[in-house]
Design a protein that fits this description.
β4, α4 and β5 form a beta-alpha-beta unit. This protein has one domain: NAD(P)-binding Rossmann-like Domain (Rossmann fold), CATH 3.40.50. The longest helix has 25 residues. Helices cover about 40% and strands about 15% of the residues. It has about 300 residues and is of the alpha/beta class. α3 packs parallel to α4, α4 runs parallel beside α5 and α5 packs across α9. About 5% of the residues have low confidence. An 8-stranded mixed sheet has the order 3-2-1-4-5-6-7-8, with helices on both faces. The protein has 10 helices and 8 strands. It is globular and about 45 Å long.
């Protein structure tokens, strides 16, 4: 890890929730936050794997079950929550998988990467006091926009197209969440990050064997470590950045290196699409933005 890449303040006495924290970027993010004094709740689908991963964390880590492909699980996680959340990291995700659907009938990549996190964030938001960081990808640039007429991509599914749409949705979600937080007078900040090209187990689930083979070669020759890939998330979570900021590596066209503010596609700045996606997401999940003003 580039230890001097981010100056991280002491985080003692604070609580973080990190989704998908049992491996890859989520585990590396958990390790950094815990070393800096945070109590990290590792929100994972497989509790046994989560407990095994927690043994590698130097600090306070607690494992709780969360399946983002099941809205009942998301609601249960939020319903059982008690106490403040200083940092929510929407990290979990699936990448370029064969077509399938979540328990609630959503295309899996959109359902897990966006809709599950959308519901989780809004349900937990009354507890959040600091930041919401959502992990996107520069593959969002492959999506020209959200296909509102065919969100599940039934008329043209490809694994990469679905992944790109879900990662664009992450950035549009962050944009609209920040707008709503400001309108509600909330001090909470919504930011996003991407890891560049980081060697994690995410690529191993790709549907296309040729693509998977290219990922193996790329991981060996180009990719940075998972630990370095987690640094943009840490940057977005701890540094002085504006609302809706997007952090990522600054070398090799955003593939690797120390983190800083990153650019995004024109489609990811589309505030009209962001509001429409929010409305559609509320309709699909049955979860709405909470009345934060009433709780102030």
């Amino acid at each position: 890890m580039e230890t001097n890449a981010v100056t991280i303040p002491d985080l003692g006495g604070r609580t973080a929730v990190v989704t998908g924290a049992n491996s890859g970027l989520g585990l590396e993010t958990t390790r950094v936050l815990a070393r800096k004094g945070m109590r990290v709740v590792m929100a994972v689908r497989d509790e046994e794997r989560g407990r095994d991963a927690a043994k590698s964390v130097d600090g306070a880590a607690q494992v709780r079950r969360l399946d983002l492909a099941d809205l009942d699980s998301v609601r249960a996680f939020a319903r059982d929550w008690d106490g403040p959340i200083h940092l929510l990291v929407n990290n979990a995700g699936v990448m370029a998988v064969p077509k399938s659907t979540t328990k609630d009938g959503f295309e899996t990549q959109l359902g897990v990467n966006h809709l599950g996190h959308f519901a989780l964030t809004n349900l937990l938001l009354p507890h959040v006091t600091g930041r919401v960081v959502t992990v996107s990808s520069n593959m969002h640039r492959m999506a020209r926009g959200i296909d509102f007429d065919d969100l599940n991509l039934d008329r043209g599914y490809t694994p990469n197209r679905a992944y790109a749409q879900s990662k664009l949705a992450n950035l549009l979600f962050t944009l609209e969440l920040q707008r709503r937080l400001e309108a509600a007078g909330s001090p909470v900040l919504a930011t996003a990050a991407h890891p560049g090209y980081a060697a994690t187990n995410l690529q191993s689930h790709a549907a296309n064997p040729v693509y998977k083979g290219l990922m193996v070669v790329g991981n060996a020759l180009i990719a940075q470590s998972g630990a370095n890939g987690a640094l943009p998330t840490i940057y977005a979570a701890t540094q002085d950045v504006p609302g809706a900021a997007y952090a990522g590596p600054r070398k090799m066209g955003g593939l690797r290196g120390a983190p800083g503010l990153s650019s995004r596609s024109e489609a990811a700045w589309d505030s009209i699409a962001a509001r429409r996606l929010w409305t559609v997401s509320e309709e699909l999940t049955g979860v709405c933005f909470p009345d934060l003003e009433a709780r102030a």
